Amino acid sequence: MSTATGLISVDEAQRIVLERAKRLDPERVPIERAAGRVLAEPVAALVDLPPFPSSAMDGYALRSADTADPPTRLPIVARIAAGSPADRRLAPGEAMAISTGGAVPEGADAVVPLELVEESDDAIDVPEPVAQGANVRERAGDVSAGDIVLEPGARLGPAQVAALAAAGVSEVQCSKRPRVGILVTGSELRQPGEPLGAGEIYESNGVLLATALQLAGAVPAQLGVVADDADEHERAMERALLGFDMLITSGGASVGPHDLVRATQAKLRVEELFWGVSVKPGKPVAFGVRRDHLVFNLPGNPVSVLVTFELFVRPAVNVLLGVPDPLPEYRSAILASAVKRNPHRDEYVRATRRREGDAVVVEPLPGRESHMIASAARADALVAVAAGDGELAAGEEIRYIAIA
Ligand code: AMP
Ligand code: MG
To answer: Which of 135, 235, 295, 390 has the smallest C-beta neighbourhood within 10 Å, fewest atoms?
Structure first.
């Protein structure tokens, strides 16, 4: 759906990206290297969890029935540590000392904690009845061998990899990590550490994108900086279009005489699917494909890169990774101070968020221009301000994307 300005909407652009992005093939990965990846198969537990009835406390294993008529004195016939089970069953009238995680011996059905009994001369005095099952972690109480621990689409974070390890699983099938080439354009760009000549600025989009991609679960490769020269563009892009799942360019995607990216790509048979989205910052963003290779042309201004990454590139990375819900998650919050709307384009306004009681309050930051990366560095939220007249008023409920 085209807007009055001839640009497509953010939703439409996202729809086009999601239509072309495909999950990558799975590969086997050790769980230590699976952080942030997405399962491509259901994973079943290889063992019962816990694998045996185990003690939840340091104390004494006994038979609940023996404590029904207190006080009870029971001889300690063995001492069980975690990893060292007793070598025989517990007979009626006996107790065994046991540590947390120790295997509750056959014959015992309860553990009385250390601090509730008196030990003397290798026996305990139990002052109160101990309920059946007290402080015993049931075998398979968490999950049974053969049961599914995690479903396909599960994103592997700390709890998920720990569950796999506990269930005896050391390797899983995950979608491959997207390999993403980053090609930066601009004759004015120097690397930090070098001296700046007249008219030059430091290059910041390469490291921005590499960092964002890495945190998103992709494998970035910085392919260098290309001068605003047609032959250099063609050489660099020809190489950049090989060997990656996705290519991201920065700069040179607008309408100036030195904006060569789109013309070069057209020569290299990249099919452009959109150029120009009704969003601020980020209007000149373009997206195309060459076979199953996705190509994003992001604008040069760093804040435009930040915003278009969140709106279009991250969702694509999510699809390639196999994340079931790839689009940005909008959260709601209360706006701390008024924001004027842009009459033509949806705007994403940098803001900081804070807790006030149960509510989250977002405070728009000064500096809404797209070159102001230093002001963006203080932001942890992008407030979505729909195009229109007037303003979003202080105290209104708004939607935002968390960016930190
Ligand atoms: P462009 O889209 O190439 O016209 O660039 C728009 C603005 O962003 C210009 O002011 C550029 O100097 C600036 N810019 C382009 N690329 C970068 C970059 N990699 N790092 C920092 N600023 C950039
Ligand atoms: Mg440029």
So the answer is: 390
The ligand placed nearest to the CA atom of residue 370 is: 1
CATH 2.40.340.10 for domain 330-402, yes or no, is yes
For residue 13, give the nearest of 400, 310, 215 by alpha carbon.
310
* Closest protein CA for atom 23 of ligand 1: 300
Tell me which CATH code domain 10-24+177-321 carries.
Answer: 3.40.980.10
Q: What are the CA-CA distances from residue 26 to residues 39, 86, 138, 170, 322 (Å)?
A: 8, 45, 36, 16, 9
> Do 246 and 316 meet the contact criterion of CB atoms below 8 Å apart?
yes
**How is the chain split into domains, by residue range?**
10-24+177-321, 30-49+143-175, 54-137, 330-402
- Model confidence at 2, in pLDDT bands (50, 70, 90)? very low
Contacts of 358 (CB under 8 A, 6+ apart): none
Give per-residue pLDDT as tens, 68-89.
Answer: 999 999 999 999 999 999 999 9
Tens of pLDDT, residue by residue over 183-212, are 999 999 999 999 999 999 999 999 999 999
Tell me the CATH number for domain 30-49+143-175.
Answer: 3.90.105.10
What percentage of the chain exceeds 90 in pLDDT?
Answer: 96
Asked if residue 251 has its Cβ within 6 Å of ligand 1, the reply is yes
Q: Which CATH superfamily is domain 54-137 in?
A: Molybdopterin biosynthesis moea protein, domain 3. (2.170.190.11)
Q: What is the pTM of this model?
A: 0.93
